[in-house]
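Why do we care about 3D structure at all? Because function follows from shape, and shape follows, mostly, from sequence. That is the central idea of this module. The next example makes it concrete: a single protein chain, its amino acid sequence, and then its structure expressed as tokens.
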Amino acid sequence: MSKKPVFKRVVLKLSGEALQGRLGYGIDYDACASIARQIKEVRRLGVEVVVVIGGGNIFRGISGSAKGIDRASADYMGMLATVINGLALQDALEKQGVFTRVQTAIAMQQLAEPYIRRRAIRHLEKGRVVIFVCGTGNPYFTTDTTAALRAVEIGADVILKATKVDGVYSSDPHKNKRARKYDSLRYIDVLKKGLKVMDATATSLCMDNKLPIIVFNLLKEGNIKRVITGEKIGTTVKG
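And the structure:
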């Protein structure tokens, strides 16, 4: 017997690197297809899904800034990278038969709809997956902050932060074998300990609005459904 979802409306936060799969750069279409299959699984449960996607597999604004590009310009370049990723994921979802809309915070009407809160909610109510690209449309804000902002705006129940590890650790588990995994954390602990769950702006916004964050491993196919049906995987940040 299939389990019932414990969330009605979710924001899935994907890094750009999630789409590069085994490649060192760019888009791995097998990785896109895997994510699309997982999203289709949860849509079948009646869960409304929003995706906020990064662009680090193509261009990361803060890295460009470190190499001498004007920070605002570098951030806008990173936002454009998220559009490429959003369109790739849209294509993968529609090949799975999942109706999808891309909404952008920077107007580009030939490619995507402008972000309009009420229209996004209406798409969700009609069973479409909505992909938000171009971050908030402003430099100096990350796509983590975008995920928190949009989740609050559309009344999402939770942010699902998809990563390459199975939760939040006391330090990098790839570098420190003694790193301890947390099953749950409070927002204030994330901020005080400087844990890399989401950036401080995003975490504070979630704390102010009592919006839980679940950090989990995307690389294990089926994990999105496991999280949504209440399985205790990853790390939950709340309270």
